[in-house]
């Protein structure tokens, strides 16, 4: 849900409206999930945190006829002003005090890049039966989301020079011009995380001829890739940490690029008797750093890398228990934090007790 909001904000690089926010159970034929008490309110707080400035609920009162008569609204078919009505009423009575915060711009140091032609290319030839582009987008997005740092989700064609970190999942289409932009970003001190199958094709969806992978970003990644393997939907490849991650054991899914380091440092390698080559690398290039994640690494492994990056780049972040989202908004010299408990359990963050699905705004949390 958070990624969806960040994607919509990234379309025009502006805050946005939501004109159909859910409150009751929904369905045209099969009726769906009924949000638990305060859960839909928490989702609304999350939307406001991520850039929504104005919100309408779908719907006010349930229809009694037509295709949408099972889309339950704020008020029921029986005209009962019950729990859902009171929940919406409490949301707007609380959030109106932060209208000035909602109108403020969101400044992100991290951007996740996508390209529609690249997505279509994957859709036509998915290469691995376990591949799903949205899941790969989430694989790169989630570790930074869990660190509670703002993220922009933007097209690769957008100017990304102002960011500190770029996450570039499964971008197989990279032409010479985009390769130069990535190089310039790195030379100026930026950090890039590429994942598997990077840079194998041109804009015509043809594999680069006589070009060592990963194509136009080979120099900045400091690696070469000569062999690859698709993993089945049930297959895993063991990987083990090297250098700063020495002793760590993990696994990979979906795909594996068999990486040959040239100037890059090996962070993880395949624990394999035949292909015990690099799986994840890190390369210093000019003033910047480029990571190459050659396989579908597990979330916990990606989280360790993301945490090291935000610390090294001095990006504001706050570690929290799983299920607790802390989204910062700044207005002038003041900081506001949207706290959302996405779980059905009581949680605590910085001595603040959050009831199941509770959400609130607080000011000036200590680091």
Can you describe this structure?
With 367 residues, the chain is an alpha/beta fold. Helices cover 25% and strands 30% of the residues. The protein has helices at residues 2-12, 39-49, 83-95, 99-102, 116-124, 133-145, 176-187, 218-221, 299-312; strands at residues 16-22, 52-58, 110-114, 151-155, 165-168, 191-195, 223-230, 237-241, 249-261, 265-270, 278-285, 288-293, 295-297, 324-331, 334-341, 347-349, 352-354, 359-363. The strands form 4 sheets. Strands 3, 4, 5, 6, 7, 8, 9, 10, 11, 12 and 13 form an 11-stranded mixed β-sheet that branches. β16 (347-349) and β17 (352-354) form a beta hairpin. The longest helix has 14 residues, at 299-312.
Identify the notable features of this structure and list them briefly.
eleven-stranded mixed sheet, Immunoglobulin-like, 30% strand, 367 residues, single chain, 3 domains, 18 strands, 9 helices, three-stranded antiparallel sheet, 25% helix, Rossmann fold, alpha/beta
What profile does the largest beta sheet have?
A: 11 strands, mixed
Proportion of β residues?
25-35%
CATH class of the largest domain: Alpha Beta
- First-last Cα distance: 26 Å
Q: Average pLDDT across residues? A: 96
The CATH superfamily label of the largest domain reads: Class I glutamine amidotransferase (GATase) domain
């Amino acid at each position: 849900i958070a990624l969806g909001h960040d994607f919509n904000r990234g379309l025009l690089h502006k805050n946005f409206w939501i004109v159909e926010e859910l409150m009751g159970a929904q369905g045209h034929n099969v009726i769906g999930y009924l949000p638990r008490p305060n859960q839909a309110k928490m989702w609304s707080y999350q939307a406001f945190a991520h850039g929504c400035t104005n919100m309408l609920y779908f719907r006010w009162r349930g229809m009694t006829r037509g295709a949408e008569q099972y889309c339950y609204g704020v008020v029921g078919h029986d005209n009962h002003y019950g729990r859902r009505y009171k929940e919406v009423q409490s949301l707007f009575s609380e959030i109106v005090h932060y209208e000035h915060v909602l109108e403020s711009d969101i400044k992100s140091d991290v951007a996740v890049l996508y390209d529609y032609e690249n997505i279509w290319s994957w859709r036509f030839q998915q290469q691995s039966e376990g591949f799903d582009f949205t899941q790969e987008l989430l694989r790169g997005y989630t570790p930074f989301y869990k660190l509670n740092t703002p993220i922009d989700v933007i097209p690769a064609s957008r100017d990304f020079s102002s960011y500190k970190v770029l996450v570039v999942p499964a971008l197989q289409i990279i032409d010479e011009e985009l390769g130069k932009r990535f190089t310039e970003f790195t030379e100026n001190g930026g950090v890039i995380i590429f994942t598997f199958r990077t840079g194998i094709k041109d804009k015509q969806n043809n594999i680069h001829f006589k070009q060592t992978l990963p194509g136009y970003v080979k120099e900045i990644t400091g690696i070469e890739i000569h062999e690859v393997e698709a993993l089945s939907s049930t297959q895993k490849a063991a990987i083990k940490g090297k250098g700063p991650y020495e002793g760590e054991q993990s696994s990979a899914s979906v795909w594996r690029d068999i990486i040959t380091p040239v100037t890059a440092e090996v962070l993880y390698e395949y624990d394999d008797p035949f292909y015990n080559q690099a799986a994840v690398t890190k390369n210093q290039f000019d003033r910047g750093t480029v990571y190459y994640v050659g396989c579908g690494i597990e979330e916990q492994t990606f989280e360790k890398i993301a945490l090291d990056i935000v610390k090294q780049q001095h990006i504001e972040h706050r570690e929290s228990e799983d299920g607790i989202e802390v989204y910062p908004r700044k207005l002038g010299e003041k900081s506001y934090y949207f706290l959302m408990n996405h779980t059905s359990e009581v949680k605590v963050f910085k001595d603040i007790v959050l009831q199941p699905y509770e959400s609130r705004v607080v000011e000036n949390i200590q680091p």
